[in-house]
Amino acid sequence: MDNFKRGSDPSSVLEIGRSTPSDYCKTPIGSRFQKSEAETIITNIMIILKRTGNKWRHLDWSEYKMERIKDGNFCTNHEKEYFELVNRYCFSAKNARLVSRNWTEIYNKFNKK
């Protein structure tokens, strides 16, 4: 049990060194994109990944759009421009850490040397 960390939810056991999309659902403050629209979209992607299995994976535009429609919040295809800009940072924790200082801190918390 030494290699595991228990969260406040007893059903959630996380292996140390393994962050999940749910850890990155906070808005990336001062992100590399310097656009609130991009920061909103990347946060939306992390929320979608969290609720669809909380695993790092590629999310394509059609699934993103479908999930946003389920939320009742999908605006227009205008989101697609920002989706394409940020999506490459959402399929691994290593990539997510490059988005902003606070996301780097999250990554470092799970990957202490």
What is this entry, summarized?
The chain is mainly α. It is built from five helices and two strands; from the N terminus they run E-E-H-H-H-H-H.
Question: Topology of this protein?
Answer:
Blueprint: E1 4-6, E2 13-15, H1 36-51, H2 61-71, H3 78-86, H4 93-96, H5 101-110
Antiparallel strand pairs: 1-2
Helix pairs in contact: 1-3
Q: Your description of this structure?
A:
The structure is a single chain. This protein has 113 residues and is mostly helical. It has one domain (20-105). It has helices spanning 36-51, 61-71, 78-86, 93-96, 101-110; strands at residues 4-6, 13-15. The chain has a two-stranded antiparallel sheet. α1 (36-51) packs across α3 (78-86). The longest helix is centred in the middle third of the chain and has 16 residues, at 36-51. The chain is globular.
